[in-house]
Each structure stands twice: as structure tokens, then as C-alpha cells.
Amino acid sequence: MKTLEKKVAVLGSTGSVGTQALDVIRMHEELSLCALSAKNNVEAAERQIREFSPAFAAMADPRAAAELMLRVADTGTRVFAGREGIAEMIASCGADVYLNSVLGFEGLFSTREIIKTGKTLALANKESIVTAGELVLRAAKRSGSAILPVDSEHCAIHQCLRAGEHREIKKLLLTASGGPFYGYSPQKLEKVTREETLAHPTWKMGQKITVDSATLMNKGFEVIEASRLFDVPGERIEVLVHRESIVHSAVEFSDHAILAQLSLPDMRFCAQYAITYPDRLPGRTEELSLAEIGALSFARPDPVAFPLLALAYRALADGGVYPAVLNAANEEAVHAFLDGKIRYPEIAETVAQVYESAKPLSVPLTFKQIYAADADARLAANEVIRRLEIQERKLSR
Ligand code: MN
Q: Is the pTM of this model over 0.70?
């Protein structure tokens, strides 16, 4: 009998997708955790080490690593510190699959280190592909690393594409829940609060991506991600608002056949698919009953109310460092919004201003240029945010 046993390393194990990936490992005895990494959540990391007994653990923050080392000194887990420690752990832990669920642009570092091993990368960190997709995919091709998307839409498309050849693809149909503000007018969007923005109707996710789902920036990033991963130009990627979050995306083939992947919205499904591919392990999450769902609906997104979606298509067409600029400006703007420094419509305003002021760079790119563009865009974004804050104070006086 063929064995499906796999040793898994989870990078970013204390975040939303990370803990759900551990849930998948917990539910299947064929899977074991051999390594984990986190930024600085020592308590959660200790709990995970005590439950899963991985051989290795790493903390990006060296102080947190020192504390974790003391706390788990009685276990057999070896603790690494800082970026070099994470790199060393990735190189030496011997995982069959690395799941990268590190938050934000920082995740590009782990992606690059994982690809060097030539092993499978289950990728939940979409920023790696959005900001440096061409470079990452080229490096993966060279080392033999397979990249399996954990993002639900791309996980769905990956499954649908098993039904046909690349040359037979007509369109990718990327579904979007539409977020909490579907159907809102730009006027109504002027007044939405932080709390309303964080109330996502269907998915359970971290705060940053929940805001990105409300602005449709997340869907824009996913258009770029899909274009890079599946080598399909933006003109042939269509976003469809699908409120029920049951159809996770679809592919239209040249004969007009549309194949879609359906399941309940649960990231554990995607993590399991990416970890166990090309096999499927029995599902341990809830089963979808189509009869209970009854009806599924589809609509076009409103480009006026959600300008960041159109800006993402533009960044994809502009290429070069533009997707990295878009990502960096948005990360800064969303954090400022979550900190109460700017209002909801000012997220898109900040991102647009930074985008327009960015200097174009000719391809081919290097990782160094991507990091430089990221740093410049963050500085520019914080200048815009400061200006908006001063304006706000004057107005409220
Ligand atoms: Mn997604």
C-alpha cells in the first residue's frame, strides 16, 4: 500500500492560516509537524511545541526566541532565532512540504529560503507572488520546488486546471464574496467604521486580509497572483461577486465548458489540498450540502465603489515593481486604518497617491529592486498618511 505520510513545516504557525494548517495536521495521523516558525507569539508557540513536538522551532524576533528557548528547554525541540535562524531551520529540517503562512511582505523571505530546498511549497503568503512572482517562479523552476497555492481561489483553479491543458484555458473566473460593503455607494462608504470593516460575512481570517476583503484590494492581489501562478494575462481573468462563498473559483475552457470547485468556506480544506497534493486525504471538515445551500448567485463587482480592484489590474499590466508598490502602500494604509489614523476611503486614496508617484523600473527585475521599491513605497505612504492625519485634526477643530 502506498503511504501518504508527510512531514510538514509550518512557517507563521501562530497566525490564522497557520493554526488552521496545524488543525489539518492534528486531524490526520499521516501528517506530522517537523518545524514551526512564528514572529513573536511565545505563548502560542510553546503550546504548539508541547502538543506537536516538532524537532525544530524558530522565532523571527530574537528576544522572543530567547524566551521560547527557556520555556521549552525540557522538550526535545531545538529553537532558532531571527531571520538567519529561520533560514537555517528551513534548510535543515527535512520537511516534505513547507506551508508558508507568514503575514505580508515579510513572507517573501521564507518563500525564497523554502524554494532553495527544492521541496514543495504550500503557499498561503500571496505577497510572495504579488510582489516578486516572476522571480519566485523562475527560482522554483530552477530548484524543482512545486508551488501549491493555499489561497482558496487559486486552490480551486489549481483543481479545475487538472481537467485540461494550459492552451485550452479561455478565462479564469475568480470569485469574491464582495465583503461586508457589497452594494454600498461611494457616499455610504465614506462613513463606514473600523468595526464594520472587520465584520466579514463568510470567511474567518486575520484583520489585515479582512480589511483587504472589504476594499476588494485582496481580490486585486489575487488577480495578480492568479496571472503569475497560472500564466494567464489579466484580460482573461474575470472577477465575479459570489456572496455565498461556495464556488471558490472556476475555469472556462476554450470549448466554453466552465469547471468550478465547490466546498464550504474553510481554509483547512485548502491547506489540506496543498499539503497532500497530488493525493487527497479524507475530509475532516464539514461536508457541503448543495440542497441545504439551495441557490448560488453571481454578479459583476462595482468598479467605482472599489477602485483598488482596478488599480491592481493596472499594476499587473504595468508590471515591474508596480505590484510591489501597490502591496507596500496598501499594507501601510491598512495598518494606519486599523490604528485609527485614517478613515476607510483614505485607504484607497493613500494607495493611489503612492502608486502615481512611484518611479517606473524596467524589467528584468532583481529581488534587490523589489525590496527597494517596497521600502520607498512605505515611506511615501507614511507621508501621505501624516498629511491626512493633519487635515483630519484641522477639520475636527
Ligand atoms: Mn482568497
A: yes
